Here is the input.
Amino acid sequence: MATVTPAPKRNGWYDLFDSLLPYSLALIVVASFLIFIGVILIRQPTDLDLLKTVSAIFLGPIGTILGFYFGYRPAEKLENRLQELIDSNREMLTELEQKKSELQRKTELATETIERAIADKKMALEQIEKLRSLIR
Here is the structure.
C-alpha cells in the first residue's frame, strides 16, 4: 500500500516571502490602477479616451490577479481537505489494523478452544470405549 507523505513545512523568511509576495504584487497593481484612475478623473475629467486607455492597459493584469486570488483559495481549501482525508484514512487504517489483530487473537483463542474440545472428545470416546470393554 502506497503512503502519501506531506511536503515538509518550511519556516522563516521564505514562508513569509512566499505567502506575502503574490498579495503584495496584487495590491501594488490594483492600488496603482486606482491611483491612475483617480488622477485622471481629478486632472482631466473630460478626457474619456485616456481613461479608456489606462483601463484597457490595467484590465489584463487585474483580471489575472482576480483569477489567481479566486483560483488560489479553492485550491488551498482542496489541499487542506485532501490532507484531512489522508489523516482520517490513516486513523481508520490504524483502527482497522487494531481490530484485525484483535480478531486474529480471538480466532487463535477459538481455534485453541476447539482443538482442546476435540482432544477432550477423543479422550472421552477412548474412556467410553474402555468402559464398554470392561463391561463386556
User: Anything to note?
Assistant: Helices lie at 13-43, 48-135.
